[in-house]
Amino acid sequence: MGSSRSRTHEGFTAEERAAMKDRATEQKAAGRGGSRADKAAQAEREVVAKIAEMQQADRIMAERVHAVVKANAPVLEPKLWYGMPAYALNGKVVCFFQSAEKFKARYATLGFSDLARLDDGPMWAAGFALTDVTTDVEARIGALVEQAVAPAGN
Fold first, then answer.
1. 56-115 tens-digit pLDDT
2. DSSP symbol at 144
3. Which residues, in sequence order, are bridge partners of residue 88?
4. Dihedral over alpha carbons 20, 89, 121, 123 (to 10 degrees)
5. Which of 14, 112, 116, 118 is 20 to 30 A from 94, comparing alpha carbons?
6. pLDDT at site 3
7. For residues 34 and 117, what is the distance between their CA atoms, to the nearest angstrom?
8. What's the burial of 147, exposed, middle or buried (CB within 10 Å: 0-12/13-18/19+)?
9. 28 alpha carbon, distance to own chain's centre
10. Rounded to an integer, what distance in angstroms lies between the CA atom of residue 24 and that of residue 11?
11. CA 148 → CA 28, 100, 131, distances in Å?
12. What is the mean pLDDT of the chain?
């Protein structure tokens, strides 16, 4: 209104908008026909392809996370979620890998949704910063994903 002051808009970043577009594409693909097995195989291929596109440091960690999740929680199905590798139970995301590069962060993240059974008293971690996936980190991820999908009461 006649003011020469410049205003900045605190909207979504370009990375956030791209992730939302990725999610819309994922939703459309999920609605397409095909058998459950065909959709699962396609989702696995898409996750592996997305990991292959990552920059080297993120790619190495994502490959190792992918292998650990598949080995320790085979009930989880790989799928893309906001353009990132995720692992779902009955179609609902339980955990996900977020590359550092995608959101220009200083570390990658392994996150868990509220469906993950990681409860530990009145407060527990639902996200973990990853700068490297060592043998010890792999063991911890394996234990977390096993716990995340354990039946209630275990």
1. 999 999 999 999 999 999 999 999 999 999 999 999 999 999 999 988 999 999 999 999
2. H
3. 77, 93
4. -10
5. 14
6. 46
7. 31
8. middle
9. 19
10. 19
11. 28, 23, 22
12. 89
Contacts for 114 with CB less than 8 Å, ≥ 6 apart: 126
| The token pair that represents 60 in the structure block | 């190495």
What order of strands is seen across the sheet that includes strand 77-81? 77-81, 84-89, 92-98, 108-112, 127-130
Q: What is the pTM of this model?
A: 0.80
Tokens of 131: 């700068």
φ and ψ of 101, to 5 deg: -65, -40
Instruction: Mention every residue, 6+ apart, whose C-beta is less than 8 A from residue 47.
Output: 66, 78, 79, 80, 85, 86
Where does residue 93 fall: left (phi above 0), alpha (psi -120 to 50 degrees), or beta otherwise? Answer: beta
Residue 43 pLDDT more than 80?
Answer: yes
The H-or-E segment that residue 22 falls in is helix 14-31
34 phi-psi bin (left φ>0, alpha ψ -120 to 50, beta other): left
